[in-house]
Description:
Serine Threonine Protein Phosphatase 5, Tetratricopeptide repeat, 11 helices
Amino acid sequence: MKKIRFLFIRLTAILLFTQTVRAGEIPAAGQSEWDCKLFRAYLDKDMPAWLSLVLSAERHAASREEVFRLTLAFYGYTAYLSGKNDKATARVYLKKLESYIVKLKSMQYIPSRVEAMEIGVIAFKMSLDPASAIREGPKLLKKINRAAGTYPDCPYLLTERGNADFHRPAVWGGSYKKATAHYRRAVEIFRNTSKDNECNWFYLNTLIQLHRAAKLAGMKKEQEEAEKLIRELAPGWKDHEQE
């Protein structure tokens, strides 16, 4: 049951946050002071400030891109709570996350990204109710594989595929090597399609997951490449698993 309990638990690095956003605003395009404060909060592990940033931004998010970035931030917060096994609070924010996914659908936002968030929601529900993993796990994998076939180059979906392969027991098809491949491809796409990764906490989290997966898979080259990219964004980053 312990393996089932932690099936699909996301975002290994604990998310926490500092500072408050000025007026809670999220500019419609490009990276902003808000993004960089969120990124700083990720690095500093200051959860109260992360939550303050997200809740203040709720009052101002209006465009589709703004709503997606807010949805992604709630995804990160729910992931943290799930990882800390704070089930009661996680369920509260999971409902809020679901409401924003519904809003993104109504706004006809990018389908691949919406589907990635939906997959994350299912995985969160499984982590909060471990007994459901046996029943829901195969359904989730089918959804992931179907989405991968439709949207093979969505970095958010690739990260979800990596999460699935990383946390799923080997007897159920889990593989650190496969997880490494998915994370690495997600990182490549982020780097090739966006100039705004300096304050992208999700990108950094994917890099950290890539580093962990490659290390556990014994893929030294990939591990070293990931570490180099991590240190470019976060020079003071430490591999806590070595401590």
